[in-house]
Amino acid sequence: MSDTPPDRLCVNPKSPFHNAEALARGVGVRFKGEDRTNVEEYSVTEGWVRLAVGRALDRRGNSMTMKYFGTVEPYYRDLADSSEAAKG
Asked: What is the pTM of this model?
């Protein structure tokens, strides 16, 4: 597996953009320079993230989400942890 996360990724297993290997490795998303933990889906080339809104669920049991546009920077958490350990 490469050291760069997929261009588009979704946590919903029903989505065609779901990648279980990448999610198991741990993907972090920095949106507009801020680390986000509530990202349901992202697309780097289109420049958007879909964020969970509160605890509300839709009628199918999925999280309610909103799409926000801006700079998206995905990264693997294991690489970020190892680089921080090397620094300090």
From this structure: 0.85
